[in-house]
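Example (one chain per record):
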Amino acid sequence: MDEGAAPNQRGLRVTSKVMKNLGYGGYVLFGSGAHPMVAEILSVHSSKYRQKDLGMGGVHGGIFMFRDVFARIYIPFAYGTVKLDPFTLTDLTKNQLAWLAIRPADYQSFLDQFSDTMYFAGTPRSYKRPPDTALELFWLAAVQLQAAAATLSAAFDFRGAIQSALIGAERSLG
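Predicted structure:
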């Protein structure tokens, strides 16, 4: 199926087609609440490739800063109607989540940032295509901002993300 696509792009297409052929409707593909059959299908698919063949990094996500640490926010791929719990779609620990829950301003900030990330990264809608010159700048900005987010959410000195974030912001305004 779709031999022209890279292996890391085929997994979603194969999974969707197999789920449809098996008669499944609305289901979550990744993250909290993912359908167990999806894991089986992806396991068979991934057994045909090396790990590096399937790697694609984060597709949709964001960063939330809480008490001087950066936490990832995950936006799952889902089809149909699904229920999302923002507090299971982050890499904050249970203790950090409990701490967040007793701090109303930080709690609301997390929900606001999750909602914004979900709206921009996970909500399908139609936009008028920007001019090609602007689109190129947006893609360059996205690359820089993804690098900054990856740096912030991993074990690196956060100051290393500042240049990527600034370049990304400059490109998006460019």
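Caption: The two ends are 40 Å apart (CA to CA).
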